[in-house]
Amino acid sequence: MRYMLMLYADEAAGAQIPPEEMKGYMDQMYAYGAALTKAGAFIQTHPLARTDQACTVRVQDGRMTVQDGPYAETREQFGGYFLIEARDMDAARQWAARCPAATWGTIEVRPLSENAGKPG
Amino acid sequence: MTDAATARGVAERVARESYGRLVAFLAARTRDLAGAEDALSEAFAAALDQWPREGAPANPDAWLLSVARRRQTDAWRRRWTQAEGEAQLTTMMDEIEAAAGTPDAIPDRRLALMFACAHPAVERDMRTPLMLQAVLGLPARDIGAAFLVPPATMGQRLVRAKARLKTAQAAFRIPETEELPERLDAVLEAVYAAFTTGWADGEPGEADLAREAIWLGRVIVGLIPDQPEARGALALMLYAEARRPARRTADGDYAPLEEQDAALWDLPLIAEAETLLRQANAAGPSGRYQIEAAIQSAHVARRLHDADSWPAIIALYEVLLTLSASPVVRLNHAMTTARVEGAEVALALIQPLDTDPRMAGYQPYWAARGQLCAEAGRRAKAHEALTLAIGLTADPAVRRYLQQRRGRLKAD
After folding, report:
1. What's the CA gap between B116 and B411, in Å, rounded?
2. Is the C or the N end of chain A the one with fewer CB within 10 Å?
């Protein structure tokens, strides 16, 4: 089963972290990716740019609206993801608990809908 | 801890003790664990609320039974007439009536309940959670938190485990002599799993599973004092518990055994463990828990009395290897061998594990391998192994510790 670990964190607080400390956290994230790879669980990962670079697009009743900013204003913002392969939800949760980002933010663990996206 | 907190702890302990005994008693008679828990749940909740404030009553069993009888009759009738039928209700009511009449004479069937929780019909990884709920009355929320399972999911799994037990018609009794050792092994395994789960938590949460496991271990030793492995398992847990105050430095950093300040160890607990181990050794053949406890005893002698225990520890691991050649035992054996014969010899010992798929996600393997490679001067390999260990660690303090260790590689 594939799972997405969605990483949420307070962007503003993150921006305040001194570079030297941030280097330590990034190093932990790198090690986490290496461990996922070694265990054959790694599929993909990427950090996202800050939400002030985001915009939202919607087409309703034939009318397109575009707005600056993320879809929803929340205390913690969606800032990156890991796509992993895991035996089941229990195993996916174990991986989420090991992710350093769980200590400074929140991780949502969600299975991918495996039968979606196939041509009808 | 304040006096109030101590008093609260004592009252809570009495409530859990009494609750477990009553659940065990009812379940043993009716073979219906979920029903027994239902019957006592409200009374138990009232006790947990009331006793810490007002003190535990003189006869806790009688208190729980009378509250259960008073409050629950209607609720059970509503619930059970639908789900279980009138007969079930009548049986449970009769049992409570009989028990309430003679609360002093309620036999302690908690051990039988533990055997039921570790019954082959119950999935292996559900035995510990089931035991924690049935014997100690821990809520699914706290059990789930310890095992990293959401509360509702843990609740459903517990319900299923109880249903499975009922379907299997599992007898709530202590097994006969010939099957006792094997079944006891499953019980001890479940208790020890609770201990290690709690132990892995740097900061214990709501429920401190390590202490709960020790409590269960004491109950077992109290009820079957003639089983050496039960004493061995309790001793093993006490040795580890005794080191708890030294596992973190004043700054909250992780301190492994070799770097711990042994002056912080809990000496009375160690003395208790030593006594248990002596009794276990005198009583009969050695099983894995006795041997593992003996290893801990040798570490104590080494750190507290400067004894040269390494050869003895290696020999004990070799005995353990003949009982179980698990990767974990092989790893510990190699780490110990390194202290006498050096890192290269140890690395050769764990070489076969390098391609073992079970090791790929096993943090202690990479932490140990990293240490050995560092000692052997293989800097690149050490860096790689320690990186994997960091990536597999969930405890931030351990993560920082490993990062520092890896940082020192460059300076060496």
Report:
1. 56
2. C
Report which of B374, B323, B321 is spatially closest to residue B347, judged by C-alpha positions: B374
Contact B127, B190 (CB under 8 A): yes
Please report, as a single letter, which amino acid is at residue A98.
R
Q: Do B399 and A97 touch (CB under 8 A)?
A: no
- What are the chain A neighbours of B394 within 8 Å (beta carbons)? 94, 97-98
Q: Per CB distance under 8 Å, which residues of A are interface residues toward B?
A: 24, 27-28, 30-36, 38-41, 90, 93-94, 97-98, 100, 103
- Min distance B409 CA to chain A CA atoms (Å): 15
Q: Return the SS3 of B137.
A: coil
pLDDT tens figures, B278-300: 999 998 778 999 999 999 999 99
Q: Do A35 and B388 touch (CB under 8 A)?
A: yes
Interval A91-119: pLDDT, tens: 999 999 999 999 999 999 999 997 766 66
Give the integer Cα–Cα distance in Å for A42 and A39: 8
How far is Cα B408 from Cα B257, in angstroms, rounded to an integer? Answer: 19
* 3-class DSSP state of A115: coil
* B135 vs B16: CA distance, rounded Å: 8
Q: Tokens standing for B2?
A: 């304040």
Instruction: Give CA angle at B124 (B138, B126), nearest 5°.
Output: 25
Q: Which residues of B touch A27 (CB under 8 A)?
A: 390, 403
Number of A/B CB contacts below 8 angstroms equals 48
What are the residues whose beta carbons fall under 8 Å from the beta carbon of B224, sequence distance 6 or more? B111, B174, B184, B230
* Residues forming beta bridges with residue A55, ordered by sequence position: A68
Paired residues of A81 in beta bridges: A6, A46
Closest CA to B38 of B63, B220, B213, B30: B30
For residue A67, give the 3-state DSSP assignment.
strand
Residue numbers in B near A94 (CB within 8 A): 148, 394
Backbone angles phi, psi at A82, to 5 degrees: -120, 130
Per-residue confidence (pLDDT) for residue B133, from 0 to 100: 93
